[in-house]
Amino acid sequence: MPRNDCLWKAMKSMSSSQAERATLVTPPNGSNQHSKYHGKYKAWLRWFFSDSWALEYLAMTIAVAALAVIFTVLMLYDGKPLNSWPHAIQLNTVLSALATIMKGFMLMPVCACLSQLKWLWYTGKTKSLQDFQIFDIASRGPWGALQLLFRLKFWQMASIGSIVILLSLASDAFLQQSVGYPLRVHPQSRNIASIPYAQHFNLYDSLASSPYTTQPLIAAVYEGVFSRNRTRSASSITPCCPTGNCTFPEYASLAVCSHCHNVSSLLRVTHQISGISRYSLPNGHSLTSESTNSGYLSINASIGPSTLRPNHLELNSDTLSKYQSPGTITNVSVISGGDPSEPWAYTAWDCVLAFCAKSYQASQSLSYFNETPLDVFEDLQSGTSSLNRAGDLETFFFDVPSTHLTTIGGRNRTFSVNTRSLEALQDSLGTALLGDTGRNETGQFAFTNWIAQGFYNNGVKNVETTFANIADALTDAMRVKSQERVQGTVLVMEPFIQVQWLWLLYPFIVVTLSMVFLGLTVWRTRRSEVPSWRSSVLAVMEHGVNSSIQEDTSSDLHNGVDGDLATAAGKEQVGDLEVWAEEVSVRLRSRGLWGKGFGLTVT
């Protein structure tokens, strides 16, 4: 007997409610149309998308994979310059897209689990029907999840799903916060930094019959005299630094050093009957002053070793060598008087300018150049020399022992001085550092030259500082005109990718909770033998609250109703419900007493 005939006979013996029930689950269009949905391929698709948890497992796998890709990308580029990111799409855009994928696929199984738990909620004790509604809206968004969380008082397993939904709202923010772009200094290889230093002193003009020094050196003398507080920040050394941020290795340069000693004790005073007093030094340098006037100053330069006899100076042998070294440029004696605080006190200074070698440490940051002298070697003794074609001495060579200027290693330890350049500089300094200051016939101050005025304006107590400024200015002038360069490293300020891994702990915890929640829900479903209906609307329509169906369910089973009618007992899967739904046509009609209320009825 055909299957539909059996069903029809069974329905004739049923009550009206049972017949209605059978009609809902029996396909009216014949077995041929019904059988086409039971092919192997379509059956597998129904199992994959409807009956099993495979889709949820797949979604969770994609979410975990997205999180793993995020971690991998950040690990690969952490600590690297931002320009090392090779793609046109920005890193933040990629992270945002991956975070969206992670959250979307993570919430898909979480919402499915909440929908499944609404069925499991009623497998135990009797519960309020309102809970069914709360479970349903909890699977749809944060507001429902918050309601369910308080409904369950944070205690039931479904609370995990609600917490995951709420925590997922901030996962994007935590992920974005984990990546920063601080500015760091980074070496740049395509540019080279350089700074001048002097290995040789060979600066003179030979247009005239005798050599004379170059204008930059004369200008350096004036700069030193009129710069009262000359520091390295006021240095005329300008490095080549394309980016304004550069570092240089420690280096040495030929330099000019100064030393001054107070020789006031060597002054000899001669008083004349006319009221004129004469203050003189053993080298013949003297200052004449009238007893009624004050504020006089006299400067006198000499070439070669100090003309003051060594036995008149309380100096040790190391200090004397600075005065008598072949590298000595000039000696200058200064006699001054008329200090406002000590109007009748006269002082005398003996100063020397000589070649020396200095080591430096330099850097430039934000276009501010800073150069610091590290060490100095002043005992330059002529090691070798060279002669010109005429047989005259042409160049002195000075060697720095390895025990001095140790920070520069083996670099540039030999320096040279051209004799014609030295003679030209000595002649120029002998002329420039010569002058007097006194009162003229009208009683006003008069200066023989600008250098004398500069020394007087600086003060008689700052003679040593003035000569130190002159030495530094001469050193800078030699270096600026030199062709030697120390190569440094160009630094650029560029953003780096910095990952703060603690911020990534938040999305990791959220994904982990969602995995645990999925596993617990599947485990509990299998233990309860409740079908995996999840959020199926068909399951609600088929197994919703209906008093007539509830009354007849037990009799259906007792009478042994065969075929599709037996599936109405509550054991069918979602795939079976989908097959049934495609075969059943319904219509929304008014029903109940006096036609009030609406319901779906089979047509």
Automatic annotation (TrEMBL):
Keywords: Membrane, Transmembrane, Transmembrane helix
InterPro entries for this protein: DUF3176
TM ranges: 54-77, 97-117, 154-175, 501-523
PANTHER family to which the protein is assigned, alphabetical: DUF3176 DOMAIN-CONTAINING PROTEIN
Superkingdom of this protein's organism: Eukaryota
Signal as UniProt keyword: no
Protein name (database record): Uncharacterized protein
Organism: Endocarpon pusillum
The keyword Metal-binding belongs to this UniProt entry's keyword annotation: no
Pfam families documented for this protein: DUF3176
